[in-house]
Amino acid sequence: MPQLFPFRAYRYNPAKVDPARVLTQPYDKITPEMQQRYAASSPYNLIAIEKGLSRPADSPSDNVYTRAARALDEWIAAKILVRDPAPAFYAYFQEFTAPGSDVRQVRKGLIALGRVVDYSEGVVFRHEQTLSGPKADRLELLRHTRAHTGQLFMLYDDPAGRMDSLLDSAASAPPDMEVRDEYGVAHRIWLIAQPDAVAAIQSAMADKKLVIADGHHRYETALAYRDEQRNAQRAARGAANPGAPYEKVMMTLVNARSKNLVILPTHRVVAGLPQFDFAALRARLAEFFDAHELSLSGDALQRAATARTQLAAAGRTGRAIGAYSGGDRLTILPLKPAANLAAALPGASARQRELDVVLLHGLIFEKGLGITAEAVRAEQNLRYEREAAAAVSAVAEGRAQACFLLNPVRVEQVMEMAFAGEVLPQKSTDFYPKMLSGVTIDRLEE
Fold first, then answer.
1. Phi and psi, residue 293, nearest 5°
2. Collapsed DSSP state (helix, strand, coil) of residue 78
3. Over the stretch 161-196, which tens digit does the pLDDT of each residue have?
């Protein structure tokens, strides 16, 4: 079961910098526009490390990784980043309003160091495949900086809410850090350093299994770095050191039973097909889906709200996908009860065939539109949108041929798939909100 450790995190010094000007969204969510905005907000913005941005004092021989390492060393020396005096866990609460809602919610997490273990040990489980490119980039950054700046987002199952009670107790005092991000999410941190509180947390988590919600590439980067360092230690000293810093990785753990755990759908937008005929597509899909047309009115936001409401209603009684190809009509495609999915999707497991996104890709894209799995991976005719309004607008404004709207995957499905050793298609889950990078930094120091 997971081994969790308190640690002495490096954190931004509020006497030197405003935390709101230096923290960032996770590295893989940072667009070029966001990168420019972050860089302009402060010379100490974490983007200088996450992306290795150039600075006037850098040597011409520097690259993104050496620049990142030098910035981190300089900030520590200048006390821009200061290390907490004693090992601690950290309660991390995020107060937010989910897109499409007006209700404020609070998601509660625990920041800790967790021992890095192979998937085969049955302690940490994944639900996504990873790509080699991002892992190579993050591994090179880790080699140079020897630091974890972003949070792995891990889920655990705690029906009794024991950990949530411990976190609530820690959060009864004023927070040690509070900042609001560009999406209006309030991020609050409390240190938990008292020995009895640390022991209670370790006891409450002793029998849990962990599922990676966000951060698969970073976890596997930590695995690769651990293996590199173990081999180097064995070569130099004859044995690895099980207590070494590289044996641990920083993570935030959240109860999968939390009512404030929000997963958003990621909608698909199709463009650039040589021929696209929605009526012909419906005819080709008639073996699998019924089709119900609904009227849409108003602007893109109003149309998207109507589409989400109708799609959610259809999803409560079965499986359904929304399709929009222009005009004032939305088509809801409910799965026919008699559809033979085992025959139609022989490469998908029974659990995978329970996912709407698998039906979308296997039946609508591949069989209906001829968009192969290879084309999907290359994003040749496909792009992704979190907001339904953006997907609808792309079609209404003639920038796309159609969009396909999805209901969100349920957290129970994520957990079941992970524990069964299966993976969801990429872009199946979008946990909201994201955890800020830089709220705590783990420097791998002996």
1. -95, 140
2. coil
3. 999 999 999 999 999 999 999 999 999 999 999 999
Pick the closest to residue 84 from 439, 446, 375, 374 (CA basis): 439
Q: List, in order, residues 6 or more apart from 335 with CB less than 8 Å away.
A: 288, 289, 318, 319, 320, 359
Structure-derived torsion over alpha carbons of residues 344, 369, 423, 309, reported in degrees to the nearest 10: -100
Distance of alpha carbon 374 from alpha carbon 368, whole angstroms: 16
SS3 122: coil
| CA gap 357, 361 in Å, rounded | 6
DSSP 123: S
Dump pLDDT digits (tens) for 21-48: 999 999 989 999 999 999 999 999 999 9
316 vs 249: CA distance, rounded Å: 39
The CB-side HSE value for 252 (13 A sphere, CA atoms) comes to 28
C-alpha torsion sign, points 245, 249, 250, 253 = negative
* Amino acid, res. 191: L
Q: Of 364, 371, 279, nearest to 322 (Cα)?
A: 364
CA distance 23 to 281: 46
| Domains in the chain: boundaries | 4-8+85-262+432-443, 266-407
Rg of the chain's alpha carbons, rounded to an integer? 23
For 215-263, how does the pLDDT look when each residue is reduced to its tens digit (9 = 90+)? 999 999 999 999 999 999 888 888 878 899 999 999 999 999 999 999 9
